[in-house]
Write a structure and sequence with these properties.
The chain has about 260 residues and is an alpha/beta fold. It has one domain: Rossmann fold, CATH 3.40.50.720. The chain is about 55% helix and about 15% strand. It is built from 10 helices and 7 strands. A 7-stranded parallel beta sheet has the order 3-2-1-4-5-6-7, sandwiched between helices. Bound molecules: NADP nicotinamide-adenine-dinucleotide phosphate (NAP).
Length: about 260
């Protein structure tokens, strides 16, 4: 079986996507920073599903890091047929309350590394009889988000880049799917410094990472271009599309303030 490479596979949605793919008999390459967590996930999934696993501990916010990832797969002779660009995070609060370096790190991970991973892995993926790219955006990709302005804009990039790439690759064996999850119970909120008010607002509509992963992997294998897990999130996407931008942006500002 060819390998599925998943970034941000040490926890949260990425770990559950790895679990879903192992269930479907894919061998796994797990990438994130936390070496001990990666080792645990790799061991757990190889034992449970009898698949091959390996992992690389690396900071994906670093410049040119995608080259290091592809070099690792080449040295080890791994043939990758599925690339899941899931690693990412947000920063909640006024844009200028974070340093340039903090903003740059987030944009490097959410945008630059994701793009470079696609670029480096495309020749490998095109060699496969059937291959997939799954890029994780966010429900924030459907509107501007005050107090998460740079994060939301980075996910708009992920959505539109994925849509464009999908059509470009129409005559190849590579299918591209962009997933836009809404609130999901992971470590995301802690890293984003999300305040209690916004956590409360999201509580009732929060999905589990297991649900998000199962629906996302199904959508990828179904060849969907764009997929929003969960009914409430689908409704949110529709409302963001029909409502005046000034209203959706003010409502969001109220939640995150
Ligand atoms: N949870 C939500 O509510 C939500 C909503 C919409 C979209 N999303 C998107 O879903 C994706 C996964 O997030 P999550 O909710 O699962 O969050 P999470 O639980 O914080 O997991 C994030 C994953 O990315 C990895 N990661 C973060 N920074 C990294 C770096 N610099 N280098 C390498 N790996 C890094 C983390 O591993 P290490 O810490 O070990 O490096 C972890 O495996 C993200 O792209 C996020 O934007 C999440």
């Amino acid at each position: 079986m060819a390998y599925a490479l998943i970034t941000g596979a040490s926890k949260g949605i990425g770990k559950e996507i790895a679990n879903e793919l192992a269930k479907r008999n894919y061998d796994l390459l797990l990438v994130a920073r936390s070496e001990s967590l990666l080792a645990e996930v790799a061991k757990e999934l190889s034992t449970t599903y009898k698949v091959k696993t390996d992992y690389l501990s690396v900071d994906l916010a670093a410049v040119d890091v995608a080259q290091q990832v592809i070099d690792w797969t080449k040295q080890k002779g791994y043939e990758v047929a599925i690339l899941v660009n899931n690693a990412g995070y947000g920063l909640v609060g006024p844009f200028d309350s974070y340093s340039i370096l903090q903003n740059r790190d987030m944009l490097n991970l959410n945008i630059a590394t994701l793009t470079e991973m696609c670029h480096h892995f495309l020749p490998v993926l095109k060699r496969q009889p059937k291959a997939y790219i799954m890029n994780i955006a966010s429900s924030t990709a459907y509107q501007a988000l005050p107090l998460m302005a740079a994060y939301a804009a980075s996910k708009i990039y992920v959505l539109n880049f994925s849509r464009g790439l999908k059509l470009e690759l129409k005559k190849t064996s590579v299918s591209v799917t962009c997933i836009s999850p809404g609130a999901t119970s992971t470590n995301f909120n802690d890293r984003a410094n999300l305040q209690e008010k916004a956590r409360k607002a999201a509580e009732k509509v929060t999905m589990t990472p297991q649900e998000v992963a199962k629906q996302s992997v199904d959508a990828m294998f179904a060849g969907k271009t764009e997929f929003v897990p969960g009914l409430v999130n689908k409704l949110g996407k529709f409302l963001a599309w029909i409502a005046p931008k000034s209203i959706t942006e003010s409502v969001a500002m109220g939640i995150y303030e």
